[in-house]
Amino acid sequence: MVSQARDKVFEVLGTVMDPEIPTLSVLDLGMITNVHVSDDGVRVRLLPTFVSCPATSYIRANIKEALTRSGFVNPEVEMESELSWSSDRVTERGRELLQAFGLGAPVQIDGLLDLSTIESVACPHCGSANTEMRSMFGSTLCRSIHYCNDCRQGFERFKPL
Amino acid sequence: MNNAIKDLLFRLADDELVLGHRNSEWTGLGPILEEDIAFSSIAQDQIGHAVANYTLLHESAAADEPLPDAIAFGRNEKQFFSSQFTELPIGDYAFSLIRHFLFDHAEMLRYELLTASSFAPLAALARKIKGELKYHVLHADLWVSKLGQGTEESRARMQTALNEAWPYALGMFEPSDYEAELVTNGIFSGEEGLQESWLEVVAPIIEKAGLTIPQASEPKYGGRHGYHTEHLQPLLDEMTEVYRLDPAAIW
Protein backbone atom coordinates (compact mmCIF):
# COMPACT_ATOMS: atom_id res chain seq x y z
CA MET A 1 0.00 0.00 0.00
CA VAL A 2 2.69 2.41 1.10
CA SER A 3 4.78 1.83 -2.01
CA GLN A 4 1.73 2.35 -4.23
CA ALA A 5 0.96 5.58 -2.40
CA ARG A 6 4.57 6.65 -2.84
CA ASP A 7 4.39 6.06 -6.61
CA LYS A 8 1.22 8.11 -6.66
CA VAL A 9 2.93 11.00 -4.80
CA PHE A 10 5.72 11.06 -7.40
CA GLU A 11 3.14 10.98 -10.18
CA VAL A 12 1.43 14.01 -8.64
CA LEU A 13 4.73 15.86 -8.09
CA GLY A 14 5.46 15.37 -11.80
CA THR A 15 2.42 17.53 -12.55
CA VAL A 16 3.42 20.47 -10.31
CA MET A 17 5.16 22.92 -12.62
CA ASP A 18 7.48 25.87 -12.10
CA PRO A 19 5.23 28.94 -12.62
CA GLU A 20 8.00 30.66 -14.60
CA ILE A 21 8.86 27.65 -16.81
CA PRO A 22 5.53 25.80 -17.04
CA THR A 23 6.90 22.73 -18.85
CA LEU A 24 9.25 21.84 -15.98
CA SER A 25 8.02 20.02 -12.89
CA VAL A 26 9.48 20.22 -9.41
CA LEU A 27 10.97 16.75 -10.02
CA ASP A 28 12.69 17.89 -13.24
CA LEU A 29 14.20 20.81 -11.32
CA GLY A 30 15.51 18.56 -8.55
CA MET A 31 13.52 20.45 -5.91
CA ILE A 32 12.26 17.40 -3.99
CA THR A 33 14.70 15.96 -1.45
CA ASN A 34 12.45 13.51 0.37
CA VAL A 35 9.04 11.87 0.16
CA HIS A 36 7.79 10.14 3.27
CA VAL A 37 4.62 8.08 3.20
CA SER A 38 3.20 6.42 6.30
CA ASP A 39 -0.16 5.66 7.88
CA ASP A 40 -0.05 9.16 9.34
CA GLY A 41 0.04 10.79 5.90
CA VAL A 42 2.41 12.24 3.34
CA ARG A 43 5.41 14.46 4.00
CA VAL A 44 7.36 16.04 1.16
CA ARG A 45 10.56 18.07 1.55
CA LEU A 46 10.96 20.96 -0.89
CA LEU A 47 14.33 22.54 -1.66
CA PRO A 48 14.02 26.15 -2.88
CA THR A 49 16.19 27.13 -5.87
CA PHE A 50 17.31 30.78 -5.59
CA VAL A 51 16.89 32.13 -2.03
CA SER A 52 14.94 35.17 -3.22
CA CYS A 53 12.79 33.34 -5.80
CA PRO A 54 9.23 34.66 -5.42
CA ALA A 55 7.80 31.45 -6.92
CA THR A 56 8.77 29.25 -3.96
CA SER A 57 5.67 29.95 -1.88
CA TYR A 58 3.41 29.34 -4.91
CA ILE A 59 5.14 26.05 -5.64
CA ARG A 60 4.72 24.95 -2.04
CA ALA A 61 1.00 25.80 -2.09
CA ASN A 62 0.59 24.11 -5.49
CA ILE A 63 2.15 20.86 -4.22
CA LYS A 64 -0.21 20.81 -1.23
CA GLU A 65 -3.18 21.49 -3.43
CA ALA A 66 -2.26 18.85 -6.04
CA LEU A 67 -1.73 16.17 -3.38
CA THR A 68 -4.99 17.07 -1.65
CA ARG A 69 -6.82 16.90 -4.98
CA SER A 70 -5.43 13.38 -5.48
CA GLY A 71 -6.91 12.21 -2.21
CA PHE A 72 -4.06 12.69 0.26
CA VAL A 73 -5.32 14.13 3.52
CA ASN A 74 -3.44 17.11 4.97
CA PRO A 75 -0.18 16.57 3.07
CA GLU A 76 2.79 18.34 4.62
CA VAL A 77 5.32 20.24 2.54
CA GLU A 78 8.38 21.14 4.60
CA MET A 79 11.06 23.53 3.41
CA GLU A 80 14.51 21.95 3.19
CA SER A 81 16.95 24.33 4.84
CA GLU A 82 19.96 22.06 5.40
CA LEU A 83 20.82 21.40 1.77
CA SER A 84 21.66 23.89 -0.95
CA TRP A 85 20.06 23.63 -4.36
CA SER A 86 22.38 23.58 -7.37
CA SER A 87 21.51 23.59 -11.06
CA ASP A 88 23.39 20.25 -11.14
CA ARG A 89 20.20 18.84 -9.59
CA VAL A 90 18.21 19.54 -12.79
CA THR A 91 17.59 16.13 -14.39
CA GLU A 92 18.63 15.14 -17.93
CA ARG A 93 14.95 15.29 -18.90
CA GLY A 94 14.76 18.74 -17.30
CA ARG A 95 17.67 19.97 -19.42
CA GLU A 96 15.97 18.73 -22.60
CA LEU A 97 12.70 20.40 -21.58
CA LEU A 98 14.51 23.70 -20.89
CA GLN A 99 15.97 23.68 -24.41
CA ALA A 100 12.61 22.77 -25.94
CA PHE A 101 11.15 25.75 -24.03
CA GLY A 102 13.79 27.98 -25.67
CA LEU A 103 16.09 28.40 -22.69
CA GLY A 104 19.77 27.45 -22.71
CA ALA A 105 20.53 24.69 -20.21
CA PRO A 106 23.03 25.11 -17.37
CA VAL A 107 26.29 23.18 -17.67
CA GLN A 108 27.35 20.80 -14.90
CA ILE A 109 29.38 22.88 -12.40
CA ASP A 110 30.36 20.39 -9.66
CA GLY A 111 30.60 23.19 -7.12
CA LEU A 112 32.81 25.39 -9.28
CA LEU A 113 31.05 28.47 -10.60
CA ASP A 114 33.19 30.90 -12.60
CA LEU A 115 32.92 33.33 -15.49
CA SER A 116 33.53 30.67 -18.14
CA THR A 117 30.77 28.34 -16.84
CA ILE A 118 28.44 31.35 -16.65
CA GLU A 119 29.27 32.47 -20.18
CA SER A 120 29.46 29.21 -22.09
CA VAL A 121 26.15 27.82 -23.31
CA ALA A 122 24.84 26.11 -26.45
CA CYS A 123 22.16 28.00 -28.37
CA PRO A 124 18.77 26.39 -27.61
CA HIS A 125 17.58 27.22 -31.16
CA CYS A 126 20.39 25.90 -33.40
CA GLY A 127 22.71 24.10 -30.97
CA SER A 128 25.75 26.23 -31.84
CA ALA A 129 28.39 26.79 -29.17
CA ASN A 130 29.36 30.08 -30.81
CA THR A 131 27.39 32.25 -28.38
CA GLU A 132 28.19 35.23 -26.19
CA MET A 133 26.78 36.48 -22.91
CA ARG A 134 25.00 39.83 -23.01
CA SER A 135 24.01 40.07 -19.35
CA MET A 136 24.49 37.96 -16.24
CA PHE A 137 21.02 38.98 -15.11
CA GLY A 138 17.80 38.35 -17.02
CA SER A 139 14.03 38.60 -16.77
CA THR A 140 13.93 36.37 -13.68
CA LEU A 141 16.56 35.61 -11.02
CA CYS A 142 17.35 32.24 -12.62
CA ARG A 143 18.01 33.57 -16.15
CA SER A 144 20.88 35.28 -17.97
CA ILE A 145 20.82 36.85 -21.46
CA HIS A 146 22.88 35.51 -24.39
CA TYR A 147 23.25 35.90 -28.14
CA CYS A 148 23.96 33.28 -30.80
CA ASN A 149 26.51 34.40 -33.39
CA ASP A 150 25.41 31.67 -35.83
CA CYS A 151 21.61 31.87 -35.94
CA ARG A 152 21.75 35.50 -34.78
CA GLN A 153 19.07 35.26 -32.18
CA GLY A 154 19.04 36.39 -28.61
CA PHE A 155 18.04 33.85 -25.99
CA GLU A 156 17.81 33.40 -22.25
CA ARG A 157 19.56 30.76 -20.28
CA PHE A 158 18.73 28.96 -17.03
CA LYS A 159 21.69 29.99 -14.88
CA PRO A 160 24.19 27.54 -13.47
CA LEU A 161 24.32 27.83 -9.66
CA MET B 1 18.91 34.30 23.66
CA ASN B 2 22.43 34.84 22.48
CA ASN B 3 22.83 38.59 21.89
CA ALA B 4 25.98 38.07 19.86
CA ILE B 5 24.14 36.05 17.20
CA LYS B 6 21.26 38.48 17.24
CA ASP B 7 23.61 41.41 16.62
CA LEU B 8 25.33 39.51 13.79
CA LEU B 9 22.03 38.71 12.07
CA PHE B 10 20.80 42.30 12.38
CA ARG B 11 24.00 43.61 10.76
CA LEU B 12 23.72 41.17 7.87
CA ALA B 13 20.02 41.65 7.26
CA ASP B 14 19.90 45.43 7.73
CA ASP B 15 22.78 45.93 5.27
CA GLU B 16 20.94 43.78 2.73
CA LEU B 17 17.58 45.45 3.22
CA VAL B 18 18.87 49.02 3.07
CA LEU B 19 21.23 48.52 0.13
CA GLY B 20 18.63 46.33 -1.61
CA HIS B 21 16.21 49.24 -1.35
CA ARG B 22 18.80 51.69 -2.68
CA ASN B 23 19.73 49.42 -5.61
CA SER B 24 16.06 49.03 -6.50
CA GLU B 25 15.98 52.80 -7.12
CA TRP B 26 17.76 52.03 -10.42
CA THR B 27 14.73 50.11 -11.70
CA GLY B 28 13.55 52.00 -14.76
CA LEU B 29 16.51 54.41 -14.63
CA GLY B 30 19.55 52.26 -15.44
CA PRO B 31 22.03 53.75 -17.93
CA ILE B 32 21.38 50.80 -20.28
CA LEU B 33 18.64 48.16 -20.17
CA GLU B 34 20.99 45.35 -19.08
CA GLU B 35 22.23 47.40 -16.11
CA ASP B 36 18.70 48.35 -15.17
CA ILE B 37 17.91 44.61 -15.03
CA ALA B 38 21.17 43.81 -13.22
CA PHE B 39 20.64 46.33 -10.41
CA SER B 40 16.99 45.29 -10.10
CA SER B 41 17.96 41.60 -9.86
CA ILE B 42 20.71 42.31 -7.34
CA ALA B 43 18.21 44.32 -5.28
CA GLN B 44 15.76 41.41 -5.42
CA ASP B 45 18.49 39.01 -4.24
CA GLN B 46 19.47 41.33 -1.40
CA ILE B 47 15.96 41.81 -0.11
CA GLY B 48 15.41 38.03 -0.27
CA HIS B 49 18.63 37.50 1.69
CA ALA B 50 17.45 40.04 4.27
CA VAL B 51 14.16 38.16 4.60
CA ALA B 52 16.08 34.90 5.10
CA ASN B 53 18.14 36.48 7.90
CA TYR B 54 15.12 38.11 9.58
CA THR B 55 13.42 34.72 9.38
CA LEU B 56 16.41 33.15 11.16
CA LEU B 57 16.13 35.85 13.82
CA HIS B 58 12.47 35.09 14.26
CA GLU B 59 12.65 31.29 14.09
CA SER B 60 15.89 30.14 15.56
CA ALA B 61 17.84 32.95 17.15
CA ALA B 62 15.57 35.10 19.25
CA ALA B 63 12.26 33.91 20.61
CA ASP B 64 11.18 37.48 21.27
CA GLU B 65 11.67 38.70 17.68
CA PRO B 66 8.51 39.23 15.63
CA LEU B 67 7.79 38.11 12.04
CA PRO B 68 10.21 39.29 9.29
CA ASP B 69 7.92 42.06 8.01
CA ALA B 70 7.55 43.52 11.47
CA ILE B 71 11.31 43.42 12.04
CA ALA B 72 11.99 45.05 8.68
CA PHE B 73 9.32 47.74 8.76
CA GLY B 74 8.65 48.29 12.45
CA ARG B 75 11.89 50.00 13.53
CA ASN B 76 13.27 53.54 13.38
CA GLU B 77 16.81 54.49 12.31
CA LYS B 78 18.33 54.11 15.80
CA GLN B 79 17.27 50.47 15.73
CA PHE B 80 18.99 49.77 12.40
CA PHE B 81 22.48 48.24 12.47
CA SER B 82 23.38 48.60 8.81
CA SER B 83 26.64 50.34 7.93
CA GLN B 84 26.29 53.97 6.82
CA PHE B 85 27.74 52.92 3.45
CA THR B 86 24.48 51.17 2.49
CA GLU B 87 22.17 54.13 3.18
CA LEU B 88 23.99 56.73 1.05
CA PRO B 89 21.93 57.89 -1.94
CA ILE B 90 22.55 56.09 -5.25
CA GLY B 91 24.50 59.07 -6.68
CA ASP B 92 25.57 58.59 -10.27
CA TYR B 93 25.99 55.15 -11.83
CA ALA B 94 29.74 55.20 -11.03
CA PHE B 95 29.02 55.59 -7.33
CA SER B 96 26.37 52.85 -7.26
CA LEU B 97 28.69 50.55 -9.18
CA ILE B 98 31.67 51.17 -6.89
CA ARG B 99 29.48 50.62 -3.84
CA HIS B 100 28.11 47.39 -5.37
CA PHE B 101 31.70 46.26 -6.04
CA LEU B 102 33.05 47.08 -2.56
CA PHE B 103 29.97 45.84 -0.73
CA ASP B 104 29.43 42.57 -2.58
CA HIS B 105 33.04 41.45 -2.23
CA ALA B 106 32.78 42.00 1.55
CA GLU B 107 29.42 40.22 1.60
CA MET B 108 30.75 37.26 -0.38
CA LEU B 109 33.77 36.85 1.93
CA ARG B 110 31.57 37.26 5.01
CA TYR B 111 29.26 34.45 3.88
CA GLU B 112 32.22 32.26 2.93
CA LEU B 113 33.47 32.59 6.53
CA LEU B 114 29.97 31.97 7.85
CA THR B 115 29.71 28.61 6.03
CA ALA B 116 31.94 27.39 8.90
CA SER B 117 29.84 29.04 11.64
CA SER B 118 28.99 27.01 14.74
CA PHE B 119 25.50 28.52 14.48
CA ALA B 120 24.25 25.80 12.11
CA PRO B 121 21.18 27.53 10.60
CA LEU B 122 23.33 30.48 9.52
CA ALA B 123 26.04 28.18 8.12
CA ALA B 124 23.39 26.42 6.00
CA LEU B 125 22.01 29.75 4.76
CA ALA B 126 25.52 30.99 3.97
CA ARG B 127 26.13 27.95 1.76
CA LYS B 128 22.98 28.78 -0.21
CA ILE B 129 23.66 32.49 -0.59
CA LYS B 130 27.34 32.18 -1.51
CA GLY B 131 26.67 30.94 -5.07
CA GLU B 132 24.23 33.76 -5.80
CA LEU B 133 26.75 36.35 -4.65
CA LYS B 134 29.24 34.98 -7.16
CA TYR B 135 27.09 36.58 -9.88
CA HIS B 136 27.14 39.90 -8.02
CA VAL B 137 30.92 40.07 -7.72
CA LEU B 138 31.57 38.90 -11.28
CA HIS B 139 29.16 41.54 -12.55
CA ALA B 140 30.83 44.24 -10.47
CA ASP B 141 34.37 43.20 -11.47
CA LEU B 142 33.45 43.28 -15.15
CA TRP B 143 32.12 46.85 -15.05
CA VAL B 144 34.79 48.25 -12.73
CA SER B 145 37.38 46.96 -15.16
CA LYS B 146 35.52 48.25 -18.25
CA LEU B 147 34.82 51.73 -16.92
CA GLY B 148 38.17 52.15 -15.16
CA GLN B 149 39.83 51.53 -18.49
CA GLY B 150 37.19 53.22 -20.65
CA THR B 151 37.39 56.88 -21.57
CA GLU B 152 39.06 59.66 -19.61
CA GLU B 153 35.63 60.68 -18.34
CA SER B 154 34.62 57.20 -17.20
CA ARG B 155 37.94 56.73 -15.41
CA ALA B 156 37.62 60.12 -13.67
CA ARG B 157 34.07 59.40 -12.56
CA MET B 158 35.06 55.99 -11.20
CA GLN B 159 37.98 57.51 -9.28
CA THR B 160 35.76 60.23 -7.78
CA ALA B 161 33.23 57.57 -6.76
CA LEU B 162 35.97 55.43 -5.21
CA ASN B 163 37.31 58.41 -3.22
CA GLU B 164 33.84 59.15 -1.86
CA ALA B 165 32.96 55.52 -1.14
CA TRP B 166 36.18 54.35 0.48
CA PRO B 167 35.85 55.70 4.09
CA TYR B 168 32.25 54.45 4.18
CA ALA B 169 33.32 51.06 2.79
CA LEU B 170 35.84 50.74 5.64
CA GLY B 171 32.92 51.47 7.98
CA MET B 172 31.37 48.11 6.98
CA PHE B 173 33.96 46.46 9.23
CA GLU B 174 33.07 48.40 12.38
CA PRO B 175 33.73 45.95 15.23
CA SER B 176 30.79 44.49 17.09
CA ASP B 177 30.46 44.74 20.89
CA TYR B 178 30.33 40.95 20.79
CA GLU B 179 33.47 40.45 18.70
CA ALA B 180 35.33 38.32 21.31
CA GLU B 181 32.28 36.21 22.05
CA LEU B 182 31.62 35.55 18.34
CA VAL B 183 35.22 34.46 17.78
CA THR B 184 35.51 32.31 20.94
CA ASN B 185 32.30 30.47 20.18
CA GLY B 186 33.21 29.86 16.54
CA ILE B 187 30.20 31.82 15.28
CA PHE B 188 32.10 34.36 13.15
CA SER B 189 35.84 34.93 12.88
CA GLY B 190 35.63 38.70 13.23
CA GLU B 191 35.61 42.01 11.35
CA GLU B 192 39.35 42.64 11.41
CA GLY B 193 40.25 39.45 9.56
CA LEU B 194 37.41 40.01 7.14
CA GLN B 195 38.63 43.51 6.30
CA GLU B 196 42.13 42.15 5.61
CA SER B 197 40.88 39.45 3.23
CA TRP B 198 38.58 41.97 1.56
CA LEU B 199 41.47 44.35 0.91
CA GLU B 200 43.53 41.50 -0.55
CA VAL B 201 40.71 40.75 -3.00
CA VAL B 202 39.60 44.24 -4.05
CA ALA B 203 42.99 46.01 -4.19
CA PRO B 204 44.37 44.12 -7.23
CA ILE B 205 41.09 44.54 -9.15
CA ILE B 206 41.07 48.29 -8.44
CA GLU B 207 44.69 48.59 -9.48
CA LYS B 208 44.17 46.57 -12.68
CA ALA B 209 41.27 48.88 -13.56
CA GLY B 210 43.72 51.81 -13.44
CA LEU B 211 42.20 53.29 -10.27
CA THR B 212 43.90 54.27 -7.01
CA ILE B 213 42.82 53.49 -3.47
CA PRO B 214 42.61 56.75 -1.46
CA GLN B 215 45.28 57.04 1.22
CA ALA B 216 44.72 57.52 4.95
CA SER B 217 40.96 57.35 5.16
CA GLU B 218 39.23 57.37 8.54
CA PRO B 219 36.51 54.70 8.52
CA LYS B 220 32.96 56.02 8.87
CA TYR B 221 31.82 54.09 11.93
CA GLY B 222 28.54 54.41 13.80
CA GLY B 223 26.00 52.53 11.70
CA ARG B 224 26.57 49.22 13.49
CA HIS B 225 25.55 50.93 16.72
CA GLY B 226 22.52 52.77 15.39
CA TYR B 227 24.16 56.09 14.46
CA HIS B 228 23.29 57.02 10.92
CA THR B 229 23.59 59.80 8.36
CA GLU B 230 20.66 62.05 7.49
CA HIS B 231 19.88 59.68 4.59
CA LEU B 232 18.55 56.64 6.44
CA GLN B 233 15.36 57.93 8.06
CA PRO B 234 13.89 59.34 4.79
CA LEU B 235 14.63 55.95 3.15
CA LEU B 236 12.83 54.14 5.99
CA ASP B 237 9.91 56.57 5.79
CA GLU B 238 9.46 55.74 2.13
CA MET B 239 10.02 51.99 2.54
CA THR B 240 7.55 51.63 5.43
CA GLU B 241 4.79 53.87 4.07
CA VAL B 242 2.37 51.05 3.22
CA TYR B 243 3.19 49.08 6.37
CA ARG B 244 2.43 52.11 8.56
CA LEU B 245 -0.93 52.57 6.84
CA ASP B 246 -1.88 48.92 7.22
CA PRO B 247 0.51 46.46 8.92
CA ALA B 248 -1.58 43.50 7.76
CA ALA B 249 -1.75 44.53 4.08
CA ILE B 250 -1.28 41.62 1.67
CA TRP B 251 -0.46 41.87 -2.03
* CATH level-four homologous superfamily name of the largest domain in chain A: Fe-S cluster assembly (FSCA)
Total helical elements of chain A: 4
The run of helices and strands of chain A is: HEEEEHEHEHEEE
**CATH T-level fold name of the largest domain in chain A:** GMP Synthetase, Chain A, domain 3
Domain count of chain A, please report it: 2
- Strand tally of chain A is 9
Structural class of chain B: mainly alpha
Strand content of chain A: 25-35%
Rough outline of chain B: globular
Oligomer status: heterodimer
Major sheet size, sense and barrel closure of chain B: none
Number of strands of chain B: 0
Q: Supply Rg of chain A.
A: 17 Å
Q: Quick one: biggest sheet of chain A?
A: 4 strands, mixed
CATH C-level label of chain B: Mainly Alpha
Q: What is the count of helical runs of chain B?
A: 11
Known CATH architecture of chain B: Up-down Bundle
CATH class of the largest domain in chain A: Alpha Beta
Biggest interface and residues each: A-B, 24 and 26 residues
Euclidean distance between termini CA atoms of chain A: 38 Å
